[in-house]
Structures are given as C-alpha cells and as structure tokens.
Amino acid sequence: MRDLTFDAETPTTAHETAVACLRDAVEAVLPDRVVRDSVSLDGDDLSISGSTYDLASFDRLLVVGGGKAGDGVADALEAVLGGRIDAGVVVTPDPGTGARIDRLPGAHPVPSREGVESARRIVDLLADADERTLVLAVVTGGASAVIPTPAEGIALEDLQSTTDALLRSGAHIGELNAVRKHLSTLKGGGLARLAAPATVAGLVLSDVVGNDLGVIASGPTAPDGTTYDDALSVLDRYDLDVPASVRERLERGARGELSETPKPGDPAFDRVRNHVLADGHTALSAARETAEAAGYEPILLSSRVRGEAREAAKTHVAVAEEAAATGDPVDAPAVILTGGECTVTVRGDGEGGPNLEYCLSAARELGTDAVVAAVDSDGEDGGTDVAGAVVDAETAAGVEAGREAAAALAGNDALPFLRDRGALVRTGPTGTNVNDLRVAVVDGRDGRRDSEDPSGE
Question: Basic and acidic residues bias located where (predicted)?
C-alpha cells in the first residue's frame, strides 16, 4: 500500500482538522483499500461488488486498462487473484512492477508517444479475446490521456494540441471527452467493442461528477451518448483553433462518412458490466467521519460541485460564514464538505490549478474566522506538483496582500502567491483519483496555538 503524506502548515486546530479530513478522504479511496473491500475470490467464484463471475466458465482471465489508479488496482488484483490472471497490461503515469500484469508508461494530462506504444499492447492483448475470456477492465481517472489511441488520420501531435486547447478553454470534462472519444479508437466504448465477445467487468474508480460511465476515462467500456456533431459543437462553442486533421475528421463523421462510436443497445455491450468501486462521495464520507470523531458537526453539502473554481469557492465561503453567524445550516464548531470537478478558464500564463485557484479565491472572500482547504485527490492540481492549499482570513489580509491576490487570480497565478504564504498542501502522486475534495472548518473553540505557546506544543 502506498505511503500517503500530507505536507502542510497547520498553525491552528482548524488547520489540523482540515488537513486530517482531506488526508483520510484520500486514504479511503486508495486502490488497495477499494479493491480489498469490493473484490474477493472464493474457489472459482470471483465476487465484484456483489456480482459473481464463475472462473471455471472461462479459459483466460485478462486485466487491461489504467489511469492514475491503474498501478494500485493492478497490485490489489494480483494480491486477490494471483496465478488466476493469465496476462495483463495497465498504463499509468508512474508504472511499478507486477508479477502477472505488465505496467507501462503513459502521460497526463497531455498524451505522449510512450502512451501510444503502451496502448498498442492493450490492443494486441485483446485481439484474441473470445467468449471464453474474462476481461477485467481497469477504468480510472486520467486514462483518457494516459492511454491514447489516435484514430486513423490523427497524428499524436494533433491529439496533443487539441487536448491542450480543450484543457485551457474551461470546457467541462463531458465536453472535453466528447471530442477525445471521436478522435480515438479505445474511448467511447471502443475497448468493449474490441474485446467482444468476451465477458468484460469494468472496475471503475470515478473522477466524474455523477459517475457517468460514458465520461469516466472517456468511457472505454460504456456506450457513448455523444456524436461527431457534439464534438464539433464543443470546438465551436469555445472557438478553438485545432489542427485541420481534427476538424476534418469530425466533419466527415458528422456527414456520416465515418462509423460512430457504439451507442446504447450495441451488441458490444451485451456481456459488459461496469462496477463503480469508489468515487468522490466515498472519499467525503470518510472525511465526514474524521470530522465527527474530532468533535465537529460535519455536513456534506455535495460531491457534485462544478463550474469555475473561483466562483464555486465563493459559495463554500458563504456557507461557512452563515454557519459562523447564524448556526445555519450547521452549528459551529463545524466542518463543511464539498467535492466535484471545477474548471479554470485560462486567461493568464501563471502557475496553478483548479484547487489552488479555488483556495486563492476563498482567501480573498473569507470574512470570518474559518479555514478552507482544497486538494486534487491525485495529488497534482492541474499541471503543478502540489495537491492544493489550505487558507484562512489572514492569507490575503491587508491592502498589499489583497492587491497581490487579485493580480494572481487575474493571471491564473495562484501557486506562487500561496507558496509565499506557506499555504500549499503537498502529497506527491497519491495513486488514486476521485476528483477534487474541499473542506471548510468553522472553529470557535480556540485560536492560533502559537499565540498561547510559542513552541506550538
């Protein structure tokens, strides 16, 4: 099991509580724990979230897939199934080693040539799958980029530039994946179609609001509800300048000159069942237990918050302020939890990500004695090497700091501002991904430890 460290400054009890809630939330969705709780073997009976697969009915058991949690899921499956696994390939940003399942490299958030080569190994492994094959498909956040299989006529460079443009546009994940599914062969149900007529069990760790199976990792084992027309609409909606090959392919598809991705009712899904093993709500439920054990009144507002990060932060702050002022919707001392996937429309050229921008916006808004923290559960917010931040009303207090904070927010440059104020949370890659996790702690019980005891003890 991966060691998980949350490195953050915690000068008050409220800071400590915020970080503890986030740490325990991430630990609850680490692949080792998730698979151990959901997958078991009793003789020939393989149980996955209450569904049973009789291994005596199959000649081969294959494991394929990947994403940010792919390596951990592969480790856990080897621990459960051992020699029952005949072969496997998982693609991850930081591959380890395994006894039965090959671990291969891929990049995130922009696909790489290594990822293309790794994805070919998955295609080759599934080429001989038949009705006596059981495929365990590891579907975790990040796989859209980590496992790239550019469609005919699409060069990797074209896929890379299109992905980068989409990420910078502020498009939400469903829009982004509508495009990617129509530029790739394994996404949008492509893996299920390639594996047919094998039996496929999807092992899903969801990083998508609402657990839409067609969106998680671009839905390799799920029907695609989007079309070439939808993908073109995304490019037009955000006025994206993409390579000619990309627009030409989408336009050809919209004219009916190319086959669509498999839709609901397609025979490719006749023997496919997807199992969501963990999601953002799983993580936030663990955080709620941590808060309660620490003597706080917890409330989980929603695991499905989306929209611009800087705007969503204002709502979280407003709820914390209301709790402090009136006791609604919860009496202090309280912990207010949210999660989901916020986006950033990039207008500047600074360093940051959705959670860093969320925290910077919250710091500018806080008008009460509360602490707000937010992290990406994968440990890497946006394109940075930090998970997120923890802030309070002092983070951007004062005229000069307020001006600097405003400039940083305008330039999408949250990381340097928060780093200079000791507000960053560092974890390194966590090996899981269930989206963003956020906490506001309203603590009326004590102040800064260093105001009472300079040693902080």
Answer: 251-260, 443-457
